[in-house]
Amino acid sequence: MTPLETLVAIESRVRTCQLCALADTRKNAVPGAGRPDADIMLIGEGPGYHENEQGLPFVGAAGKLLDELLAAIGLNREDVYITNVLKCRPPGNRDPQPEEIDACRAYLDRQIELIDPAVIVTLGRFSMARWFPGARISTIHGQPMRIGARMVVPMFHPAAALHQPKYRPMLHHDFKQLPGFIAQLQAESGTEGVAEQPPEQLSLL
């Protein structure tokens, strides 16, 4: 299969996944959406109420702010790929549990491998923890980390900026750096690619 066909197959598998207890409480799994060869991949924490209803990522109030942030740098959600650490909504929008993150990890691993983005933007602390374990988002937001030819940029979750308006200008500032990061990576196109660790707990296509 082509990478696109494989990505579609993984998204289909996510929708019927039974690997953790969230399968019993979800209405719709939310595998992700967007451009399959996107330069920017945005990874949030988990679906909320509206995402669970529609099966699409970031379609509630936080999604509207995300659209605004993308528009400020001349992009829309069709230009990027958006997904979450968790593919199903935790009951009551509680925090993701470690076993739930582990159950979804192989799906996210494979999505990153197939999309191969130049820049990964982590939205929120649970997404950030994959690459910045133990770090405080208030300290490192907007500061990219190089992994081979890729940059990983931690940012506040849009929902946090809605609840605490002081984060909103920080989020806008951090987003406005993304075109420069991509331009820098494109100028260094001879750099070797990123070697992601293959998923261990789940065999995917």
Write a structural description.
The chain has helices at residues 3-15, 49-54, 61-71, 98-115, 125-128, 137-140, 158-163, 167-176, 178-187, and strands at 33-34, 40-44, 81-84, 119-123, 145-147, 150-155. With 205 residues, the chain is of the alpha/beta class. The protein has a single domain (3-187), classed as Uracil-DNA Glycosylase, subunit E (3-Layer(aba) Sandwich), CATH 3.40.470. A hairpin with a 2-residue loop joins strand 5 (145-147) and strand 6 (150-155). The protein is globular, with a radius of gyration of 16 Å. Mean pLDDT is 92; it is low at 191-205.
Which descriptors apply to this entry?
single chain; 205 residues; alpha/beta; Uracil-DNA Glycosylase, subunit E; 6-stranded mixed sheet; 9 helices; 6 strands; 40% helix; globular; disordered C terminus
**How many domains make up the 3D coordinates?**
1
Q: Low-confidence spans: pLDDT under 50, at least 5 residues? A: 191-205
The coarse overall form would be globular
Q: Element order, helices and strands?
A: HEEHHEHEHHEEHHH
Please indicate the percent range of residues in DSSP E strands (runs of 2 or more): 5-15%
Distance N terminus to C terminus? 9 Å
The average pLDDT score comes to 92
**Biggest sheet: strand arrangement:** 1-3-2-4-6-5
The biggest sheet amounts to:
6 strands, mixed
Q: Mind telling me the CATH class?
A: Alpha Beta
- Portion of residues within helices: 40-55%
Offer a concise description of the structure.
The chain has 205 residues and is of the alpha/beta class.
What's the layout of helices and strands?
Elements (H helix, E strand, L loop, with lengths): L2 H13 L17 E2 L5 E5 L4 H6 L6 H11 L9 E4 L13 H18 L3 E5 L1 H4 L8 H4 L4 E3 L2 E6 L2 H6 L3 H10 L1 H10 L18
Parallel strand pairs: 2-3, 2-4, 4-6
Antiparallel strand pairs: 1-3, 5-6
Helix pairs in contact: 1-4
